[in-house]
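Render threonine--tRNA ligase in 3D.
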Amino acid sequence: MNCPCHVQVYNQGLKSYRDLPLRLAEFGSCHRYESSGSMHGLMRVRGFTQDDAHIFCTEDQIEAECAGFITLLSSIYSDLGFAKFDIKLSTRPEVRIGTDEQWDKVEGALTGAIEHLGLPYEINPGDGAFYGPKLDFKLTDAIGREWQCGTFQVDAQLPARLGAEYVGEDGAKHMPYMLHRAILGSFERFIGILIENYAGKLPFWLAPRQVVVASIVSDADAYVGEIVAALRAKGIRAEADTRNEKINYKVREHSVGKVPVLLAIGQKEVEERSVSVRRLGDTRTETLPFAQIVADLVAEATPPDLR
C-alpha cells in the first residue's frame, strides 16, 4: 500500500489550512501472499493494481469529503452498469488506538454523509480498522456472490506518527486527518466482476474488441481495409477479418469472442459503399451507408461521462 508514501509527499513543504483538502491518487501495485487454495481467476490474486488515493483534510471537512466520494463512486458504478450497491459502516473495534472522543466525531461524520445523501446502509459493529472507522462498498456479481470493491477509511494515526502538520487559522500547527479511499479496489477483481455481470457481453464503449469487419469475398478486402482505417481514425477498436473462410464461420467465431458489432462486406456492399451490420445476440442484419455506421459507432463508443 502507498499510504506512508503519500504522507511523505504531503510533508514536502509547509501546508496551510487553505491548502486543505489536499488529494493524492495513483494506480499502485500491491502484493499479497494469498494461500494457493484461496486464489481463483481474477477474483483473488497475489499481485494486483489498486486505484489508491488519500485525502488530507481537517476534521470539519471529513463529512463533505465522504459525501463527495460516495457521489463520485455512485456515478462510476452506474456508468459501469451497477445501479445498486451496499454500504457497510464498520465502527470501532475493541482493540484500537485514538480516544473515544475522536472515534465519536469521525463515526458521526461518516454517518452524517450517508444520511445526507439518503442512502441505505448497514452497521458492522466492531469491524472497523484499529486506526479508524470505515465504509465498505459491496457489489453482488451475476451468481450472487458479494465482493468488497470501494472503501473509505478515516485515519488520524498515520499522519500523527509520520509528522504531518498544517498551519491553522489560529497560526498554530495542527494534524490533518488522512482519508484512505478506493473506488474499484483491485482492478483485476473488478474486471472479473464486470465480465461475469455482463456474461462477457460488455457495453460497446467498454469492450476491448469493438468491431470486426469481415469480408465475404476476396474482392472486398480493399474496402474492408478502408472501413477499418476509418474506424480506427475515430478511435474505434476495429479489426479486419479477410481470411478465406465462409462468412457463417466468421460470424460464429466472433460471436463466441463476444465482439459487439460485426460488419460483413460482400460485393454488393462494395458497389453501394455500404455495410451489413450484425450485433451480438441479434440474428437480424441491417444495411447502412458507410458514413452513417461510422458516425453511429463513434457515438456508441463515447463513454457515458463524456456524452
